[in-house]
Design goal:
Keywords: Membrane, Transmembrane, Transmembrane helix. With 265 residues, this protein is mostly helical. It folds into two domains: 186 residues, no CATH class; 51 residues, no CATH class.
Length: 265
Amino acid sequence: MTKTHKLVIWLVITAFLAGFFWLWAYEWLQGSLFESNNLHLRMWAALTVLVGFVSAGFILFQRYLFALFAGMLAGLSFMFFFGINPLNFISSAAILLLFFHAQANIKEELAQRTKINARMAIRRSVMPLILSVFLLVSFGAYQSPAIKSFENINRLPSSSEKFISTIVGAVVRDFAGGALDPSLESQATDQVSRQLIDQANVFLEPYFQYAPPAIAFALFLILWGLSWIFMWLSLASGVIFFYMFKKMRWFRIEEKDVKAEVLTV
C-alpha cells in the first residue's frame, strides 16, 4: 500500500469521525444546552477520538496537505449540518489556520528530537485542534434554537427571576430576624422582588439584543475551561492510534545519523 493510499484511507476515516461528531453536536444544540439529560456524552467521546486520530495523522504524514484536507473535512461536515452561510464559511476557513498550527507544532517537535516521542508530539497538536472544534461549536450554538430564542426577549428569564426572589427572601428573613409574620414576610419578599426585577428589566432592556452572542461566547468559555479534560483524553486516544497503526505496520521507525548543534564557550 502506497503512502497516497494510506493518506486517502486516513482522510476517509477522518471524514466519518467528523461526520458523527457534528451529527451528535447538532442534536445536542437543538435542545437545552445545560440540562443534565442533554449532555450527549457520545459527542464528547467522538471529539476525543477525532482529535486523537487527526493528531496521529499529523505524525504519520507530516505534510501541510494533510492538515489542509483534514481541516476542510472538519469545516465541510460542520456546514453540512449547520448550513452554508457567510458566518459558517468564514469560521470553517479560519480553523484551517489552527490545523496548520497543529501540524507545524508536530513538525517542530519531531525535528528537535533524536528519538520519536509520540506522546509529546501529539500533546503539542491536540490543543489547537480542540480550540478549533470549540470555536465551531460556539458558532453552531449561536445559530441554535436554544440561543436564538433569546433574540426577542424583553425581560429576564424566569430562572433569573426565581433566583432574585430567593436572594430577596433570604435577605428579608435575615433582616426581620423572625419578627415578621410568615404571611407578611412572604408579601414583603414578593413586593421587593417585583420591584427589583422590574428595575433590572428596565436597566437591561437595551442589552437584551446582545444575549445570543453573549451566551454563545459564555458556552465557549465553559468549554475552554474544560479543555484540559479533552486534552488528556485526546492525547491518550492519539497515542493509542499511533501504536495501533505501528503494530499494523503502516509505518516503521528508522535510525539515521543527524547533525546536532552544540554550544561552546
